[in-house]
Structures are given as structure tokens and as C-alpha cells.
Amino acid sequence: RAESALSEARRTGGSSTVHYEDTAGVASQLTAALTAGEFTVVYQPIVDAAEGRVTGAEALVRWIRPGLGPVPPNDFIPDAERSGFIRVLDRWVLRTACQAAASWPRHVATKVTVNVSGQELDQPDYYDQVVAALADSGLPADRLVLEVTESTLDADSAAALDVLRRLRALGIRIAIDDFGTGYSSLSRLHRLPADILKIDRSFVAVLGPTDQEAPVIAAITALARTLGLRTVAEGVEEPHQAALLRRYGCDEIQGWLYGRPGDPELIGAALAGPRTP
Ligand code: C2E
Ligand code: CA
Ligand code: CA
Ligand code: CA
């Protein structure tokens, strides 16, 4: 497996920004990488839990450093967030993903899911940027899902909640990512303008082959039903995990069991071709 310079630096006790030529210039170096075409977007299928039919895909960014190979997002997203570059990157990913999804076969209402950093929602022009990305790509609003993590979303920010409300009014769905891992009180969750809860991989990974019960999954799916939210489980690697999730009424499933993140053409082909078992 390709090890990034940054992971290497971390392992050997180096500073987390050691691979940047100038630690103060993180944003400018990431910007240069974007201009040089070193970022790419891959798509991981999301399937209907009951039938295994592809219903959409999550867009995940990749940084391919020349000579170093792929840098995992977890290695540069924190730097991108600290430096503010995340706003530039997220907008680029949004535009790229909308363009890709607009060309997928339309016989099913497949959605594209895009990650949004919480700090983006506080930007006054974010709503207009999303509207422009839809208009320029021709993607209908009801085929876009925006994912916000529980931990980066400031549920006390009136501006952020207002943007989410306006985006939903367009027909865009809002998903709460990594649900259950961050701090969020039930009263906050109740106030969030959301449509989907994404069940974090950590709750799926612990589901063993002989488990007949899954109390945390039971609780999250029951909560979602009560609040009128759909559920998507991430990190599903084994058939028994999918079976348990299905039993608890989880709506959609994402994970290596159904497909690894890949090129946009793979999603297009999966949608156009016959269903794979
Ligand atoms: P996430 O949003 O929770 O995305 C799911 C992560 O789980 C992805 O990692 C995906 O490749 C991985 N994954 C999916 N299925 C499986 C599975 O069955 N088993 C295992 N072990 N892993 C699985 P990835 O692509 O490395 O992304 C890591 C995180 O980086 C994402 O976590 C997300 O928080 C962030 N990220 C990725 N792309 C973007 C982006 O464009 N913008 C922002 N703001 N964040 C992004
Ligand atoms: Ca996500
Ligand atoms: Ca997630
Ligand atoms: Ca996660």
C-alpha cells in the first residue's frame, strides 16, 4: 500500500506539515496542487439495502502526488481545514461530482453525495455556489446529497442552519455524516434540517458473524424512524453485516462489500449494465 510522505512523517515522529516546503504556505501549496491537476474524485456506490440496487455514489477526493502516489484524505483534509483551503477544494469537488453525475444514466434517480466541511456553511456565498454548480452541470437538485459531519457542523450557528434549510427547499438532501461519533444532543439533532443519518463505520465494524442483536444499530435506526430520517450505513464489508442492517430496517448500504471508491465511469457502467449479484 502506498504510504504518503505525511503518514511517514507522522510515523517517524515528524511534524504533520513536514512535507510542505513552507509550513506557512500550506494553502498555496495545496492550491498549486489543485491547479496542477493532482486532485481527483472517486465514487463509491451506495446501494438499496433490500435489493442491492445502486441508488447513488459518494464522491471522495484523492490527492495523487507525483512520485509519491495517493495521499489519503485523512492526511490532508485536517491541513486543508486549518488553512481554509478546504473551501476551495470542496467547491471543486462539488462541481466535479455534479458534472459526473449529470452524465450517469437517468433511468433510475441516482444521487451523488458530496462531503461538505462545516465551516463552508458559514460562508455567505455557499448557497449561490451550490446553485451555480447545479445550473452549470444540469444536475437536478433532487439528485444531490450534501453530507455534513456531526462534529464540524455548528448546530448553534443560525447562518449554517439557514443555509441548510434553503438548500433543502431546492430539493437537495442533507445527510449527517459519521452519526454517533461526535457530540450532539438529541435536541440539536431534532433542530438540524436533515434527511439522512449516516451510521458511522465504527458501529458496523463491530458486527460479528454470529451476532443476532445489534443494540446500537437498533437504537440509531429507531431514532431515525421516529425523526422521519432515512439511514445509510457505511463501511459494510461482510454479508452478515448487511443482513443485520437490513433486519433493522437500514435503508441504504455503502462499503467494500458492494464496491470500493472508483472512477466515475464505473458507476455509470453499474447503472447501465445488468445487476451484479
Ligand atoms: P467519510 O465521509 O466517512 O467517507 C467514508 C470513508 O470510508 C472513505 O475513506 C471510504 O473510502 C472509506 N470506506 C468506504 N467503505 C469502506 C469499507 O467497507 N471499509 C473500510 N475500512 N473503509 C471504507 P476516504 O476516501 O479515505 O475518506 C476519508 C474521509 O475524508 C471521509 O470520511 C471524509 O470525511 C473526508 N473526505 C473525503 N473526501 C472529501 C471531500 O471532498 N471534502 C471533505 N470536506 N472531506 C472529504
Ligand atoms: Ca462522507
Ligand atoms: Ca461517513
Ligand atoms: Ca466515517
From TrEMBL:
Sequence ranges assigned to domain EAL in this UniProt record: 23-275
Keywords, comma-separated and alphabetical: Membrane, Transmembrane, Transmembrane helix
GO terms, molecular function: cyclic-guanylate-specific phosphodiesterase activity
Protein's UniProt keywords contain Signal: no
Name the record gives this protein: Diguanylate cyclase/phosphodiesterase
Taxonomic lineage of the native organism: Bacteria, Bacillati, Actinomycetota, Actinomycetes, Cryptosporangiales
Range within the parent protein: 300 to 576 of 584
